[in-house]
Design brief:
Layout: H1 2-12, H2 16-21, H3 27-34, H4 44-67, H5 72-94, H6 106-115, H7 120-139, H8 147-178, H9 183-194, H10 201-218, H11 227-241, E1 246-249, E2 263-267, E3 270-276, H12 283-300, E4 304-308, E5 319-327, E6 330-338
Parallel strand pairs: 3-4, 4-6
Antiparallel strand pairs: 1-2, 2-3, 5-6
């Protein structure tokens, strides 16, 4: 997608603006591909309305170039602001916010989002866009935006829309999983309660994830599930089966570093991390997942992590395996649940380090 090309070209290529002029804006296609079409989420049409402003912003950008009229660059930013506000409002409603009149001030929407369970990275993106684009363009009537600023506003709000849409899909999946019931779930919930927490946190999480994976396998088209939807399912089923488990989504284990596991899982004095991969991922994702978890265990001084790869086909069977590693002469464990046999993903770290 465009963002990947941009990142790859910034470091190596010629002037970024010259490069981007010839590119088709395909971030919209990525948003369209993520949007559900079956009407399962009531906010989907609102998101489409918000994203439409990005399309119009692109038209203003092209018009400014063709007519050599720099005033239109301001219109590009104004349209991007409408996408920003629209996406925030739809996310607010998707997360349980109430606005019966549709006139709630945007600052109130942001206050609600900050106080709820939105991931920190989403809150950072909200703050960054508001400071860099919305505040200045809304209140600065003497401002004149340049072509590169208009272009970057499109890229920025598109990335923001994709990240927020991912979270809304995750949230919808989590809510559906929280209210789901079955005899197998009821039996496991009862067993977890009656055990009196005798078992360890990692063992309870593994049992819950095996059940989650089996539910995914029994569902329709498991290979079509997006990773964010699987993450939502994992959060929903763990929360519904054991409310004493505290899940923290993408919390930074070390400030100012991009070390944010999918979940930090805690119960009383126990803690571990869980990393989720999309169904159908192969051995490359397996090794990468182990490398990620080892980094989390290192900086977080945690004893164990779980890598969860759900089945892609109804006939797939989940296999649980455990691997011992050594980090700075400290023993750690990575437990993998996947639809294939896991040998030694990182054999060079499977033995104690020698001084």
């Amino acid at each position: 997608m465009l963002l990947r090309r941009v990142v790859g070209r910034v470091a190596f290529g010629p002037d970024l603006l010259t490069y981007l002029k010839g590119l088709k804006m395909d971030l919209i296609a990525e948003i369209d591909e993520k949007l559900p079409v079956d009407g399962i989420y009531p906010w989907a049409e609102g998101v489409r309305a918000a994203v439409r402003h990005i399309r119009v912003a692109e038209q203003w950008l092209e018009r400014a170039r063709e007519e050599r009229n720099e005033d239109y660059f301001n219109d590009v930013v104004y349209r991007c602001n409408q996408t920003f506000e629209g996406m925030l409002r739809e996310a607010f409603l998707a997360s349980g916010g109430k606005d019966p009149t549709g006139k709630l001030e945007l600052c109130k929407v942001e206050e609600y989002i900050k106080k709820t369970h939105f991931p920190r990275r989403i809150l950072e993106m909200v703050q960054r866009y508001r400071i860099e684009w919305r505040n200045s363009s809304t209140h600065g009537y003497r401002l004149f935006f340049q072509e590169k600023e208009a272009l970057f506003s499109i890229i920025t709000v598109s990335a923001f829309a994709i990240a927020l849409l991912d979270y809304m899909l995750e949230l919808g999946s989590r809510n559906a999983e929280t209210t789901s019931t079955s005899p197998r779930r009821d039996a496991l919930r009862k067993e977890l309660i009656e055990s009196g927490r005798v078992k360890s946190l990692v063992k309870d999480v593994l049992r819950i994830l095996l059940l989650a994976g089996d539910d995914i396998r029994r569902g329709s088209a498991p290979s079509h599930l997006r990773e964010v939807e699987i993450i939502g399912r994992v959060a929903g089923i763990i929360g519904s089966l054991d409310p004493s488990i505290v899940l923290t989504r993408e919390t930074p284990l070390l400030e100012d570093q991009h070390l944010r596991p999918d979940f930090l899982v805690q119960r009383e004095d126990e803690a571990l991390v869980v990393e989720v991969k999309a169904a159908g991922t192969g051995t490359a994702s397996l090794e990468y997942g182990h490398v990620q978890i080892l980094a989390y265990l290192d900086v977080g001084s945690l004893p164990a992590g779980v890598l969860f790869i759900p089945p892609a086909l109804p006939q797939d069977k989940l296999i649980q395996s455990s691997h011992q590693y050594w980090i700075r002469e400290r023993e750690v464990w990575i437990h993998t649940i996947a639809p294939f046999v896991v040998e030694e993903p990182l054999s060079y770290l499977s033995r104690p380090e020698r001084r």
